[in-house]
Automatic annotation (TrEMBL):
Gene3D superfamilies: HAD superfamily/HAD-like, Putative phosphatase, domain 2. This is Noncanonical pyrimidine nucleotidase, YjjG family. GO terms for molecular function: 5'-nucleotidase activity. It comes from Bizionia argentinensis JUB59. InterPro entries: HAD-like_sf (IPR036412), HAD-SF_hydro_IA (IPR006439), HAD-SF_hydro_IA_YjjG/PynA (IPR011951), HAD_2 (IPR041492), HAD_sf (IPR023214), PGP-like_dom2 (IPR023198), Pyrimidine_5'-ntase_YjjG (IPR052550). Coiled coil: none annotated.
Length: 229
């Protein structure tokens, strides 16, 4: 069902347009090879990914800072694997990971087709909890930066999704109104419930196939957003 009156479409970046899991896996392969760390990458990622999500939730909730997030997610993962990695090396890996992550820029299938489809009729924007320096590089290196009128990150806004202040910041930057806006993202708490609580419509990019409430708009592929916009 087409949505009427929408002029501004706000996207999350990681896990929504930018294929974070794929790019992250390639980054770990690269930095582990550089530092001669011999661990099973598949086994590592299986342990790391839920740990990373847990620490990102703590970061969203302001229970840890950025440096703690970067260090603890690696420390806990290596400990879970009984891998003897020194703290000095973990700090080096944490830095190298952030620096190298934007050198891999796989997008989800349909991203460019969708953005080309939307751009003539909508103003497009980004709202991300990711770090300012890395998110700009991701947009630039994946060649999608020019699609977006504004890019709001949590470091600029001073708070993280789902805090309503970041949505308010983004809409003010975009000079638009709630009734004319919609948020698209993968994270139910940060993107969808955050937007709905703030008062703008939302569509969940449910590529992970989790069970969500029937009253929440959702798509399982980006191209399916054409049925709404």
């Amino acid at each position: 069902m087409k949505l009427n009156g929408i002029t501004d479409v706000f996207f999350d970046l990681d896990h929504t347009l930018w294929d974070f899991d794929k790019n992250s896996a390639l980054t770990f392969e690269k930095i582990f090879k550089t530092h001669n760390i011999e661990v099973d990458i598949i086994g590592f990622l299986k342990i790391y990914e839920p740990i990373n999500l847990r620490y990102w939730k703590l970061y969203r909730d302001d229970q840890i800072d950025k440096d703690s997030l970067r260090y603890r997610r690696l420390k806990d993962s290596f400990e879970a694997m009984d891998a003897a990695i020194t703290d000095d090396l973990i700090y080096k890996l944490a830095d190298d990971y952030v620096l190298s992550l934007s050198t891999f820029n796989f997008l989800f299938d349909g991203t460019l087709e969708l953005l080309d489809y939307l751009k003539p009729n909508y103003r497009l924007h980004i709202i991300t909890n990711g770090f300012q320096e890395s998110q700009h590089k991701k947009l630039e290196q994946s060649k999608i930066l020019d699609y977006f009128h504004t890019v709001t990150n949590s470091e600029l806004a001073g708070v993280k999704k789902p805090n309503p202040i970041i949505f308010d910041y983004a809409l003010n930057m975009a000079t638009t109104k709630k009734a004319k806006s919609i948020m698209i993202g993968d994270n139910m708490e940060a993107d969808i419930l955050g937007a709905l609580s703030y008062g703008i419509d939302a569509i969940c990019f449910n590529y992970h196939g989790v069970k969500i409430e029937d009253n929440i708009k959702q798509v399982t592929s980006l191209i399916d957003l054409k049925s709404y916009l």
